[in-house]
Every structure is written in C-alpha cells, then in structure tokens.
Design brief:
The protein is of the alpha/beta class. 29% of the residues lie in helices and 29% in strands.
Length: 312
C-alpha cells in the first residue's frame, strides 16, 4: 500500500543565482487534502513543477506514490489530474478536441466528461481562442478531473472563475474526496479556498517551508475584524480593554471596528453591550495572517515578488 502520495526530501530548485525553492521537506498521505499557501512568487508553482517532473531539482528528491520523480517521467500521469497556474491550450482547436486529445494520450475514455461539462456550463464546441479566461480555466479543470484521478495537483484552480463556478468546483472536489478518497495538493494564496477543503496547510515563504499545521491551527491565527454599528453613538475607547482585542477604531459616531486576535466569542459578547443596528465579522486576508505570523517571530512580512526567474 502507498505510504505517501506526495513527498519532498530537502527539495531544492534554483534558477542560476536566483531563488526557487530551498530544502523543502513534507509529505501528503493518501486521502489527505494539503493546502500549499504562500503569496505570489513564494515558490508554489516551482514546487509543483518539480513534483511532476517538469523541472529538474537542483538537489534533494521528490516522490509521487512512493516512486522517485524523474524528469519527464510519465509513468504515473494517468493517476494525476493537474491544473497549472498558466493554462496552455491549442488556440485553433475546440474544447472537445482538447478533451479527446488528452484522453487519447492517457489511453482511456474519460469517466466524468459529460457531468463536468454540464455542471461547469461549458460549451465544448467553441474554439479555445474564442474562450474567455474563465472558460479556458473550466476546460483545464475538465481535462484534469474527467478521468477521476487518484491525485489532484491544483495550482490556483479557481483563477478567473466567478464565485458561483468556484463553489461548483469545490463541491466537485469535496465529492471526489468523500467518494473516492482522492488526495489533493492545492496551491493557493486565497485563505477561503484552503479553509473549505484542506486538512493540513504548508506555508511557503521565499522558497522555504516556514510552517506546517492543521487548517484549524492556521485559521486560529487569523485576525478577525468585528465591525459593529449601534443604534446610538458610542466611543471606541470604551471597548479598548476587551480581552483578546488588539485595537478598536472609530468608524463613525455609531460604528466601531475591533481587531480580535483571540477569544472571539467573548469579544463579540463584550461589544454587544448596547442595542445594535448591524454586525459584521470578517477574516483577515492571508497576507495579514502572514504579517501576524512573521511579526510574532520578529521578522518582516514576505513581500510579493515581481521578478523571480520563474519561481512562483
């Protein structure tokens, strides 16, 4: 029986003198849903390309299904569904041609083609060059999912999709996990995507894995902003000493916004000491969680890169 589906052992990839990824060590076991988090430019795509044998490692090793990954080795491609961050399709061909072409490379007819086309509201008769970014992403997802793979490697899979289709995609992924025990490696910089489906999370910063935790543990680190509008004027200073609250700001004479680091339930109850007109609780962005994480370790937050020689 396969012990691990994805495994890295001190995986390093450099682009000349530029950083790619450094000394990555982690594993994903069968049936797990692993979120690979980091800002754009942190090394997420580089890691996936090394795992798939599309890029050679500078040093270290990576494994899929307990087999060491070799450059351009297609042995296990039929067991994998891959959605790249930069989808490359044949522009002069139709979506149906792409579906049939990939199926022929795998040597099998797709199992879920019709279902996916219907659920994603995709028209396979149109040529790729006529498709919007969102519809090209739908096609990439259909091609990746249609053969019911054991492992899904998803690099920013909902890029360009509207919120309704994003929800459909995550419904489909959740169904595959429940029905087939599909293992998922999900690269994203969007916290809400990871929160929906992932069991564990790895955080990559400047090419290095800086944290690996359960999803619940990393979500617990998130600052919540509680915005309360009261029926009467209030002063923010009156709420400054609430346990777990980092700061309270006055939005207008009837509205305050509190940043809550811990004890969310207690903080909200303390804020509801007057009749309220409206209440909103929002998660921090992933970037704010990174800032909080690094600040707690006396480090600067990661800055998004604009030129990393392909490391993203």
């Amino acid at each position: 029986m396969t012990e691990t589906v994805v495994r890295c052992e001190q995986l390093t990839r450099r682009y000349g003198k530029s950083r790619g990824v450094e000394d990555l060590t982690f594993e994903v076991r069968p049936g797990q849903v692993f979120g690979f988090l980091g800002p754009n430019g942190a090394g997420k795509t580089t890691t996936i390309r090394c795992l798939l044998g599309l890029l050679p490692a500078t040093s270290g090793k990576s494994f899929l299904f307990d087999r060491e990954v070799k450059l351009n080795d297609a042995s296990d491609r039929g067991r994998i569904g891959y959605v790249p961050g930069d989808v490359a399709l044949y522009p002069a061909e139709t979506g149906q041609w792409m579906i049939d072409y990939v199926s022929s490379l795998r040597g099998t007819r797709p199992k879920s083609e019709a279902e996916l086309i219907e659920r994603l509201s995709f028209d396979p008769t149109r040529k790729v060059k006529e498709l919007s970014k969102g519809n090209r992403q739908k096609l990439a997802l259909i091609v990746a999912l249609m053969h019911d793979p054991e492992l899904l490697m998803l690099d920013e899979p909902t890029s360009g999709l509207d919120p309704i289709i994003q929800q459909v995609i995550f419904d489909i992924i959740a169904e595959r996990i429940a029905r087939d025990g599909t293992t998922v490696f999900l690269s994203s910089h969007i916290l809400s995507e990871v929160e929906r489906v992932c069991d564990r999370v790895g955080v990559i910063r400047e090419g290095r894995l800086v944290a690996e935790e359960s999803t619940a543990e990393i979500i617990a680190k998130a600052i919540r902003t509680v915005r309360v509008t009261y029926d009467e004027p209030v002063r923010a200073e009156a709420y400054a000493a609430i346990p777990g609250v980092e700061s309270v700001t006055q939005v207008d004479e009837r509205t305050v916004a509190a940043k809550v680091l811990s004890n969310l339930d207690g903080a909200v109850h303390a804020l509801l000491d007057h009749p309220i007109h409206d209440l909103q609780v929002t998660h921090a962005s992933l970037e704010e969680i990174f800032f909080q994480y690094y600040a707690a370790n006396g480090e600067a937050p990661p800055a998004p890169s604009t030129d990393e020689g392909g490391a993203s």
